[in-house]
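Class, discuss our next protein.
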Amino acid sequence: QVQLVESGGGLVQAGGSLRLSCAASGRTFTSYAMGWFRQAPGKEREFVAARSWKSYYSDSVLGRFTISRDNAKNMVYLQMNSLKPEDTAVYYCAADPRSSVSSNDYNYWGQGTQVTVSS
């Protein structure tokens, strides 16, 4: 069982930066792939980034966002730079033993944190 708690969301102007954090419980953190997904109003949840032994990114955030993890602290981060209004969404942290870009493959989810980018 893994419990996830996100933090770090907020309101930022276009071009700005935010860093999201996800704290994970459990002693087997290193055996899980960690992912970030987002969901904007009226849209389906979409993949943003994932990290197991390597990192994966959606095309829409590649070069702007960076996923990292600190296994000693059971933390995963999403550094978001050059933010755009279209990045506005609720961002979710997710965990699963399998590394995947599909939200259907993740069994554990945080409650989400709101990111709003103003133009």
